[in-house]
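May I ask for a sample protein chain and its fold as tokens?
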Amino acid sequence: MKPISINSWEGNAVARAYNMLAQEAGHVTAMCAIYDQVVNHSEKGDVRPFLEMNWRTLPLLSSMVDTDGSNRIRKRIKHVCNQLLPILENKRDIICIGTETAWLDVVTTQQEHKDKIFHIVPHSSDADLNRILANYGENVHIQNSFDLSHLYGSTSVIITFAFGISDYTFYTYPVVHRVCGRDTRQAFSDLIALDIIDSPLRFYPADLVEIDVDEMTLVLSRDYESNKRIRKWKLAAF
């Protein structure tokens, strides 16, 4: 079948498909999957016209306009997972605030993490949790409550995801506000934000919230002062 023109795509239809996937599998997975589909149905694989027409409705997807697309994100995921190896070496419980399956697919299968348990706090109440769990082994659990007190300890870390990171703030899932705070920083070894897409955003993502980078104890991002570790809020709880 001859590829259709990018201009004939209905932005609203693509946005609906993107949002449905992002609700369940996370923005990173949605970005890669929808980007690849747009490439496959565009003349000569040129996605720039479509992305530039949809900055406001698809701010995260459109941030890929000046990159080599989903391949770069997939490489970035592997790089981030390797960066995490020494940080998670002596940890047992990994609490993930937000369901980013593109990242989980890689990190949960690394041999170094075979004895760790990944506790997923979904970012959407509309996600099919059984379908998510069906893709993973016994080391992946769904955390249905915001009460993480049973996971407190020096062998536990919290990981969330940073989008459009700047020197002072980044965007992330609203559920992070429900879980992370100054009391949380004292209860876990680290609160880590992963900048996976590594791209600036031109417009505010409507389903995300903006928080201070100082809410985290560690930010892994190429553009944020070489993976800056935040120490001024870090308290010795253990």
